[in-house]
Amino acid sequence: MPFAQIHLIEGRTEEQKRAVIEKVTQALVEAVGAPRENVRVLITDVPKENWGIAGVSAKDRGR
After folding, report:
1. How are beta strands 40-46 and 3-9 bridged, if at all?
2. Is 35 an active-site residue?
3. What's the pTM?
4. Which residue among 1, 2, 14, 25 is the active-site one?
5. What is the SS3 string spanning 1-54?
6. Beta-carbon count within 10 A of 34 CB
7. Which of 2, 18, 27, 57 has the most CB atoms less than 10 A away?
8. d(CA 60, CA 47)
9. Is 21 in contact with 41 (CB distance < 8 Å)?
10. Nearest Cα to Cα of residue 11 among 37, 54, 39, 50
């Protein structure tokens, strides 16, 4: 059973997350031949202050 874990900086819409789930699922079906019903996708929203970019938090960088 393929399991994809995706970490995103908080702020994506529910529609965007649905699109990620659909596209990642389809990619795994095509790439490894997994049955669609066996694919699992977990999206974790990470607070901007907990995401570092080049030594600075995403919040401090204005992301």
Report:
1. parallel
2. no
3. 0.88
4. 2
5. CCEEEEEEECCCCHHHHHHHHHHHHHHHHHHHCCCHHHCEEEEEEECHHHCEEC
6. 15
7. 2
8. 12
9. yes
10. 50
What gap in Å lies between CA 23 and CA 11, rounded to an integer? 19
Domains of the chain: 3-57 (3.30.429.10)
Which is nearest to 21 in space by CA: 41, 49, 1, 47? 41
Cα(17)–Cα(1) distance, integer angstroms: 21
Amino acid at 39: V
Task: Give yes or no for a contact between 28 and 2, defined as CB atoms under 8 angstroms apart.
Answer: yes
